[in-house]
Amino acid sequence: MKKIQILGTGCAKCNKLTETAAAAAQELGIAYDLQKITEIARFADFGVMFTPAMVVDGVVKVAGRVPSVEEAKDLLS
Q1: Are residues 18 and 50 in contact, defined by beta-carbon separation less than 8 angstroms?
Q2: What is the extent of the structural domain holding 65?
Q3: How far apart are CA 33 and CA 40, in angstroms?
Q4: Distance between CA 25 and CA 2 in Å, rounded?
């Protein structure tokens, strides 16, 4: 099971990244656990300076932008 974490304050881009990550995981047919992290203090734990960010299994895959669903699928596989 993939652990997907979305780092962001709840802005429109953060919500879009959450939707994109979920859609990509569903299209790939993989089991996943999606968590939203909104506490700004926790962003530094991942070394993230810009949100939104997507972390997969503890590795920051994208930060500061929302990838397309196709790119997100590549990042998840």
Answers
A1: no
A2: 2-76
A3: 21
A4: 9
Reading the chain (77 residues) residue by residue, the pLDDT tens digits are 999 999 999 999 999 999 999 999 999 999 999 999 999 999 999 999 999 999 999 999 999 999 999 999 999 98
Q: At what angle do helices 12-28 and 69-76 cross, to 10 degrees?
A: 60
Strand pairing category for 53-56 and 2-7: antiparallel
* CA–CA separation, 9 and 13 (whole Å): 9
Q: Looking at residue 36, which CATH number applies to its domain?
A: 3.40.30.10
Give the CA angle between residues 1, 60, 63 to the nearest 5°: 125
pLDDT at 51: 95
Total count of domains within the chain: 1
CB 73 within 8 A of CB 27: yes
